[in-house]
Amino acid sequence: MKLSTSVVSHHIANLENRLGVSLFFRSSRKLSLTPEGHRILDAARRMVDAGNEALDALSDTSDQPVGALRIAMPAFGQHTNLYRAIWQFSSDNPMVSIFVGSSDKQVDLVEGGFDLAIRIGNMPDSSLMTKRICPFHRTLVASPDYLKSRPAIHAPEDLRSCDFVSLSMLPDEITLLQDEQVFTFEPDNVSTEVDTITAAKSAVIAGLGIQHLPDREVVDELSSGSLVEVLPSWQLPVLGIYVVWPENGPQKKLTRRLIDHLAH
Question: What domain range includes position 128?
Fold first, then answer.
């Protein structure tokens, strides 16, 4: 909303005074809705939906789209085409207010009030609508120092004795492909577990183990020699980058416009 917490709190306090009830239980650590808050929540959401419907109506007759979008993006890849596409959309549509939340953890779109999210991998069945917008390529990498500290890796079977850095946003199971050969295993030796791509890359560079990382995130490190591709004659399956959005209710025209822009 581009408002400070104190301003939002002031508006909520005024609303509570007007209604003569408390809408939130407050503590130093969290807020939760009171029964009265829950009672008006659905109506309040319908008010927001009605406002969005009005903005959609304006977008149909205006030369410039009008409205607001909340987008959940991965925290990594901030210099890639994906982020540049968001900034271009914002530049092309100055009357659209855009909030971008960046995290490698998956967020609840409905609870977080997000219109759409960018997610990576194979999408599980869910209530979310999905559209694949581009491929996601990965490279199996390790630091030269780590590879020097252990027996040489000549074949996929040699990976079973290696240390791995676990990344919570990607599956632990690793599949490697070469022509018609398929090798799949789940690492037994996990030295470190992290929850962001950036942290995983840092841990691999520090020599803590092997991990498959996005191609675009390791280009410079492979070029400088601080990372080395492991088993370059084998490939990792290509995953997808998806845009996902809640199925409930009509999809906003503004959301559809952004999805088309990202796909293009």
Answer: 65-136+241-263
